[in-house]
């Protein structure tokens, strides 16, 4: 007899299974379809999984919440650290910009102060230049006379850029050698600061060049004034007149070390002394009869022993005769005071002028006298008209130079006048 083969529960999915439940005398049975078994198993597994997941969540919920909170805290801390870092960088940039701004303001203030000093120097120098022009001292030309100048007479240094940038103030600085077109703002403020520093450095160099030129011009003017004064004084030395401007006996004043005086002020004082010397030399020259009383007229008779034109015998001629047409102007040969103006024997109509330093001049044979005794006259003033009055054979001017009352040869004085005419 063969044994029946028993298959496991639910092994045959094609046939339904019957479940029998016995309880005492009560017997119950259920027929279980395959699909119902599968559905039931699936539900059981789902319920078990859900239970396990819920249990795990309840067990690990605090850890998950704490982890999430910790992660949020870390993100918040990183964010705050980033904010703090950016704020620190911003503070550094702001501080650097503030320092740069303060440095720029200091440099600009320094440039404005230097410009103010240049203006004050110009106010001091302008009268000196007028004195130098009036005294005849040649103003030295600029180192580059073809360089363009701004409204203040300052050199404009051009660059290769077409659009000039006028820097801090066009009135103060003029166009500068560093020119830049406006650039859009970027995150490199230091680049703009460097450009501004280059600009201020260029302006500072320009102002330094102007100061150097001013000092060089004053030095050149002083040298010219001293040279002209020396030429005049050397020429006047032959007249025997002692120059008063060289006397230094009455001097004094507080002691100021030379190093404590600014170069500009030192050069300005030197220029003032040079112009004072030149003006003194010219004033002295104009008080000595070195000018021609009738410019351009020939000499008809010289100073010294000659044959008298009237009686024919040898006689001393105390002056020089200038042949000139009657009515020609007779001019004073130096500054002085008229001491005599009238008829004087052989001189005819004569004018005598006292020039100081023991020197005097006489103008004789004039047809007309145009000055009066006591009148102050200057070199070149007309004192009368050429004539033939007194002991004369025809229209001419008799001209004498006297030192301490004695007649001296006027030719030496006229020679000196021709030598210093260019400086006067």
Q: Which key features would you list for this structure?
A:
424 residues; alpha+beta; three-stranded antiparallel β-sheet; rod-shaped
Low-confidence stretches: 142-183, 245-249
Helix and strand pattern: EEHHHHEEEEEEEEEEEEEH
Task: State the end-to-end distance.
Answer: 170 Å
Strand percentage lies at 15-25%
Rg from alpha-carbon coordinates: 58 Å
Q: Give the helix level as a range of percent.
A: 40-55%
Structural class: alpha+beta
Largest beta-sheet characterization: 8 strands, antiparallel
Per DSSP, the total helix count is 5
**Shape annotation:** rod-shaped
Q: Say how many strands there are.
A: 15
Average of the residue pLDDT scores: 78
Short summary:
It contains five helices and 15 strands.
Topology:
Elements: E1 17-23, E2 26-32, H1 34-135, H2 170-173, H3 189-236, H4 263-286, E3 299-301, E4 304-307, E5 314-317, E6 320-323, E7 329-331, E8 336-343, E9 349-356, E10 359-366, E11 368-369, E12 376-377, E13 382-385, E14 396-403, E15 406-408, H5 410-420
Antiparallel strand pairs: 1-2, 3-6, 4-5, 6-14, 7-13, 8-9, 8-12, 9-10, 10-14, 11-13, 14-15
Helix pairs in contact: 1-3, 1-4, 3-4
């Amino acid at each position: 007899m063969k044994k029946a083969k028993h298959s496991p529960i639910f092994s045959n999915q094609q046939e339904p299974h019957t479940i029998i439940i016995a309880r005492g005398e009560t017997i119950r049975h259920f027929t279980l379809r395959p699909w119902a078994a599968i559905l039931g198993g699936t539900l059981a597994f789902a319920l078990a999984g859900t239970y396990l997941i819920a249990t795990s969540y309840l067990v690990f919920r605090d850890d998950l919440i704490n982890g999430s909170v910790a992660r949020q805290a870390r993100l918040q801390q990183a964010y705050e650290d980033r904010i703090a870092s950016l704020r620190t960088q911003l503070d550094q940039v702001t501080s650097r910009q503030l320092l740069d701004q303060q440095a720029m303001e200091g440099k600009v203030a320094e440039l404005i102060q230097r410009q103010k000093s240049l203006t004050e120097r110009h106010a001091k120098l302008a009268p000196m230049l007028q004195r130098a022009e009036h005294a005849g001292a040649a103003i030295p030309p600029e180192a580059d006379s073809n360089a363009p100048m701004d409204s203040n007479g300052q050199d404009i240094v051009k660059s290769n850029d077409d659009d000039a940038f006028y820097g801090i103030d066009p009135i103060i600085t003029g166009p500068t050698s560093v020119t830049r077109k406006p650039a859009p703002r970027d995150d490199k403020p230091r680049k703009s600061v460097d450009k501004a520093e280059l600009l201020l450095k260029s302006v500072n160099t320009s102002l330094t060049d102007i100061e150097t030129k001013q000092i060089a011009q004053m030095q050149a003017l002083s040298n010219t004034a001293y040279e002209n004064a020396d030429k005049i004084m050397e020429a006047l030395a032959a007249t025997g007149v002692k120059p008063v401007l060289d006397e230094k006996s009455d001097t004094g004043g507080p002691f100021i070390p030379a190093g404590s005086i600014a170069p500009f002020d030192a050069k300005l004082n030197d220029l003032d002394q040079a112009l004072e010397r030149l003006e003194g030399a010219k004033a002295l020259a104009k008080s000595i009869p070195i000018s021609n009383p009738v410019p351009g007229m020939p000499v008809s008779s010289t100073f010294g022993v000659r044959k008298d034109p009237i009686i024919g015998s040898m006689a001393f001629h105390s002056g020089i005769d200038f042949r000139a047409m009657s009515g020609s102007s007779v001019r004073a040969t130096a500054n002085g005071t008229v001491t005599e103006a009238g008829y004087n024997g052989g001189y005819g109509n004569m004018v005598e002028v006292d020039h100081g330093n023991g020197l005097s001049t006489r103008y004789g044979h004039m047809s007309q006298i145009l000055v009066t005794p006591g009148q102050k006259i200057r070199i070149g003033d007309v004192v009368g008209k050429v004539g033939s009055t007194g002991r004369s054979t025809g229209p001419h001017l008799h001209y004498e130079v006297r030192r301490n009352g004695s007649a001296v040869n006027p030719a030496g004085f006229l020679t000196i006048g021709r030598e210093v005419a260019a400086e006067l």
